[in-house]
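Below is one such record:
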Amino acid sequence: MAIATTALVPGCGAGSVDGVAGEDGSELMSLDESEDVGSIELAAMSCSNLDGTNAAMAAFAVAVGKELGRWQVGKDFVLVKTNGQTENSTGVAESIKLTTGTDASGPKGKSRCSDGRCANVQAILDMQYDQASGKIWFQGSGSNKVQLNPSALRSRMSAKFKEQQACDSNAKDGQPTACPKEEHKLTYVKAAAGGCDTMFTFNVKRTDGTALKYPGQLKQKLQFADWTNPYVQFTPLANGDIMVDPTGGLNPDGTTSTGSCAAVCTKVSTSSVAGQCCSCGGVNKTFSQSTFNTNVFLCQ
């Protein structure tokens, strides 16, 4: 008996949002019903990214999947208290941070990443802090752009991390609304233009390489990114692939172009793109390296 695997239908990237931060940017988006994305017919979707956190959290899910090869944030991350300025400070503001070392299931956190630091994940984590305030913009539709609110991202990531911990602590296989006990692994497949922005595709299996026994429960492992987030929507597929559609630029391989310029306001890259042409808010500029993370480049 065939079991339908599950997938994340691409939500809506920031490119589909009208209005800058602080304005109503909600917009109903629809795709031609004849368009085939995998085996899915995509219905109308509501895209909202007013403070940038929807797109950032979807990009975080992609980065974790690509670099850590799983969605087990209770093992790979820890809740810390900082002054809200930087990751290495102390204070009362809650944020999340990568762990390191090993546990019963093997390497965790930074120890799972080939570079030993999880560059893409860390770049997005650094956007939680006030050091990034007023600096991170996401490309909207046309000449519009959306500014990320680091405080809002920090608060939301911490809250959703706690929800994921609670779900994982009560894991039970075979119950759709519970987190699964079965372990999984993600293999990055490709990035391509999605219905709203950039679609990242992964193949998912159990850690022994066999198909998931409870594929419908995988979405519960995305509570840390808020699977009700319009950028992260879950739907059955037949091929074992899963997809997430964050705003272009926050994940390597996900940059679109306008002519010879990258059509992104903020780009994460492990190689320098400083001085290269970019387009933000409909205006051509050049990338410069940010002051808070060497892998984050700002179109300014």
Notes: Residues 150-169 form the longest helix (20 residues).
